[in-house]
Amino acid sequence: MRAGYQGTGPGAITPDGCAVELYSRLPVGAEPDVIAGAVPAGAHILELGSGVGRMTHPLLERGFTVTSVDESAEMLERIRGAPTICSPIEDLDLGERFDVVLLASFLVHTGDLEVRRGLLRTCARHVAADGCVLIQREGEDYHADLPRERVDPSGFTVRMVSSEPVGEGVNSVRAEYEFADATWTQTFLARPLTKEQFEEALGEAGLKVDRYLTEDRIWVRAVPA
């Protein structure tokens, strides 16, 4: 397990504390519609941090071509209908450029500055000159008003238990997911970023914001600078 990361619950746990079975159960949500509305029909998408395919499969159903990348072989085993590449994102260099590069799941908020720089450089390295990078950010209140919980319409409860400072600009976040038959927890390191800090990080990697796709600015469309 990576330092600062931990996961508990049934089944395989990835190095960053994600439970494969948990992510196989989580509902899709509105993300594929946000993505589809921001990119050309039929685009080839490089999905970085695809996990079990929670977004991969809906994007395939919408007619996109998807190449899925994740560091967890156990996660990738759940993906159907897309080529998969098992690799840390920051090390990836396929020698190919894509219409769309997708970096979701708040990965841009990783606690490790060098890893974040690597993630964004990978995005810039793989996006076509006329393509775009779609990034999912934390909500502005992600680390506030804790603990909080919500009950998903499908019946499980997700709790954001705590977010405690553990270093310069880094928080240790603990989340719980309670289902009728199982409970999972995940502890991970996250670096909150203001809009200005986020845009500065993009600039370091040779990217710039094209537009924010949602009113809460969680979803962003970036392009080569």
Q: Could you explain the architecture of this structure?
A:
With 225 residues, the protein is of the alpha/beta class. It has a domain at 26-138 and 193-224: Vaccinia Virus protein VP39 (Rossmann fold, 3-Layer(aba) Sandwich). 20% of the residues lie in helices and 34% in strands. It has six helices and twelve strands. The chain has helices at residues 20-25, 31-36, 56-61, 73-76, 113-126, 195-204; strands at 6-8, 44-48, 65-70, 84-86, 98-103, 127-136, 148-151, 157-167, 170-178, 183-190, 207-212, 219-224. The strands form two sheets. The protein has a seven-stranded mixed beta sheet. Strands 1-10-9-8-7 form a five-stranded antiparallel beta sheet, with no helix packed on it. Strand 11 and strand 12 (219-224) form a beta hairpin. The termini are far apart.
Please give the structural blueprint.
Blueprint: E1 6-8, H1 20-25, H2 31-36, E2 44-48, H3 56-61, E3 65-70, H4 73-76, E4 84-86, E5 98-103, H5 113-126, E6 127-136, E7 148-151, E8 157-167, E9 170-178, E10 183-190, H6 195-204, E11 207-212, E12 219-224
Parallel strand pairs: 2-3, 2-5, 3-4, 5-6
Antiparallel strand pairs: 1-10, 6-12, 7-8, 8-9, 9-10, 11-12
List the keywords.
single chain, alpha/beta, five-stranded antiparallel β-sheet, 225 residues, Rossmann fold, seven-stranded mixed β-sheet
Number of helices: 6
CATH superfamily grouping of the domain at 26-138 and 193-224: Vaccinia Virus protein VP39
Strand content: 25-35%
Strand order of the largest sheet: 4-3-2-5-6-12-11
Total number of β-strand segments? 12
List SSEs in N-to-C order: EHHEHEHEEHEEEEEHEE
Could you say which overall geometry the principal axes of the C-alpha atoms support? globular
**N-to-C CA distance:** 36 Å
What is the CATH-assigned architecture of the domain at 26-138 and 193-224? 3-Layer(aba) Sandwich
Return the CATH class of the domain at 26-138 and 193-224. Alpha Beta
Structural class: alpha/beta
Largest sheet, in brief, is:
7 strands, mixed
